[in-house]
Design a protein that fits this description.
Chain lengths: 118, 111
């Protein structure tokens, strides 16, 4: 089955530093990847849609200069949290849809990254 | 933007009990997916339903798509501790690349 690898699984950083999270599709090509933020025991909040070779589309209220997304290849998207603050601490999850996927195709999720900003 | 209401938000039951989780909207969906997420992991797809009135079974889980394609339900028979997790419904529509997720139902099954 389609596998999405997200790295790192956990990261602790100091306030003011930047953190990069990688999302890789291991056995399929993903033209579109999605980045979510999730608070404890809550649902997924879509942050942005990342399309290979073009600029990401950010959801309302998500600062694009703070959450930098790069989707340089069909198998890799990265999310960089810049100048992190404690309120950015959260669980970040990526998902990918396969090339040619339709609206009812499954999303393949990474296992998430737990970010703690001290 | 479609709004998906999921109920209940939290459910704590004993092993062996039955339960139903609901996902409702005022809008019509082209498709409806159910995912389960365990703590510290990403969601995993359980089922996709696309036809109004469709019923799908996955072992002890029964999924139903409403006739009007505005609502869906997930019924678990004889729940087990391994069913514990966050259950998410997600709606898709033709022409849109993003899914709309419900707020989730947190299920805890105690031995």
């Amino acid at each position: 089955g389609a596998v999405v690898s997200q790295h790192p699984s956990r990261v602790i950083c100091k306030s003011g530093t930047s953190v990069k999270i990688e999302c890789r599709s291991l056995d399929f090509q993903a033209t579109t990847m999605f980045w979510y933020r999730q608070f404890p025991k809550q649902s997924l909040m879509l942050m942005a849609t990342s399309n290979e070779g073009s600029k990401a589309t950010y959801e309302q209220g998500v600062e694009k200069d703070k959450f930098l997304i790069n989707h340089a290849s069909l198998t890799l998207s990265t999310l960089t949290v810049t100048s992190a603050h404690p309120e950015d601490s959260s669980f970040y999850i990526c998902s990918a849809s396969e090339q040619g996927a339709s609206y009812n195709s499954p999303l393949h999720f990474g296992n998430g990254t737990r970010l703690t900003v001290t | 933007t479609q709004l998906l209401e999921q109920s209940p938000q939290f459910l704590s039951i004993q092993e062996g009990e039955n339960l139903t989780v609901y996902c409702n909207s005022s809008s019509v969906f082209s498709s409806l997916q159910w995912y389960r997420q365990e703590p510290g992991e990403g969601p995993v797809l359980l089922v996709t339903v696309v036809t109004g009135g469709e019923v799908k079974k996955l072992k002890r889980l029964t999924f139903q798509f409403g006739d009007a394609r505005k609502d869906s339900s997930l019924h678990i028979t004889a729940a087990q501790p391994g069913d514990t997790g966050l259950y998410l419904c997600a709606a898709g529509n033709s022409g849109y690349s993003t899914l709309t997720f419900g707020k989730g139902t947190m299920l805890l099954v105690s031995p």
